[in-house]
Input
Amino acid sequence: MSTDPEGKPGTWKKWFEGAFSEPGLGGAATPIANLDQVHGGNPSVHWNTFLQRWIMVYHSWPGSLMLSQSDDLVFWSVPVVLLEPAANSKLWYATILGEADTIAGKTATLVYADFPDSTKPERKFIAREITFLNQEAR
Output
């Protein structure tokens, strides 16, 4: 994380033993509790005005879309599967769009890439409406 609004080089810190305290380059790091339960990449985070909490979507390395929630951007829920890929495919690069890519409400649009054959680079971009209910997305 960086407290610099422009995210300038040298301002980034890694999570280490309970705080963002280590240099972003070369510093030590520890996993963020619960997010280490399902490894993946390309997280997208937005503030959800309906749930009144932060929502993160990302892809697991096998290709499922995952969702986690946080009240403070530090402590996250154990990720749950939002979407499973079809056999031999993967779903990657998810983001949730509402009023913007950083703010959404009860209904929003989930956008992601569907790789029908996970061994090839060809992909389709999918947009689908989702509704948040009782702290879950469907």
